[in-house]
Amino acid sequence: MTQTEPGTGRRASEARERLLRTAGQLFYTQGIHTVGVDRLVTEAKITNATFYRHFRSKEDLAVAYIASVDQAIRTQLDTLTAADLPTDAILRGIGASLAEQIRSPGYRGCAFLNAAAEFPAPDHPVHQAVVQHRAWFLHTITALFAEITDDSAQYAGRHFVMLRDGAMSAGYLGDPTLAGQTLLRGIEGLLRAHTARRLDQSTTPTPDHTPPPAATVPDIDCSPPAT
Questions:
Q1: Degrees, nearest 5: CA angle 165-166-168
Q2: At 28, is the secondary structure helix, strand, or coil?
Q3: pLDDT in tens, 50-80
Q4: Interior angle at CA 89, CA 226 and CA 149, nearest 5
Q5: Which are the contacts of 225, defined by CB distance < 8 A and separation ≥ 6?
Q6: Per-residue b or e along 179-213, where b marks 16 or more CB atoms closer than 10 Å to that residue's CB
Q7: What's the pLDDT band for 119 if we cut at 50, 70, 90?
Q8: Is the dihedral of CA 83, 99, 121, 42 positive or negative?
Q9: Which residues, 6 or more positions from 92, have their beta carbon under 8 angstroms from its beta carbon?
């Protein structure tokens, strides 16, 4: 199915989609700097002219790659937050999906953190694309905590994102199962502490609060989908 280019609404060509899928897999598994235009062209089965018709440079393609992963996550979370689910179930579900991703075959860390490490200059377009994604993700998570209580929601949001960052790095460099378990325990503790703030403010707190089960959140991936 032909898709639209993120942020433009224009229909993307089949060759562009194929190139972007190929770039996503190679950039994620081998690094953006390591993969040259010649290899991208060969593996995507396009010509050099087609490449440069869609992208002025490999760095422009890298920005599009980051934007495509960002857009996929935005769509998934937008769908989830629009559903009739308890807020804490949504947050638990995001954590459960991340833990599953960390344990998945071929996992090589977070595509956004990897790209930022390759392009450390703050004014580089790839770095800026990563920063924009992280700002949106932090805002979204913070807004979810604010639905539980506004009190210290910004701290809870930052804490959640740091738990996520640490788990995604530890899952690649160490034991992915332990990293996922630690992430889930950390999110559970964070939710208990944050919910306690709401109960402290309530004149009629509910005793023996039993948290709802985690929502089902498929594919909240900070990596490109498998081809």
A1: 65
A2: helix
A3: 999 999 999 999 999 999 999 999 988 888 8
A4: 125
A5: 24, 72, 219
A6: bbebbbebbbebbeebbebeeeeeeeeeeeeeeee
A7: very high
A8: negative
A9: 184, 187, 188, 191, 211, 213, 214, 215
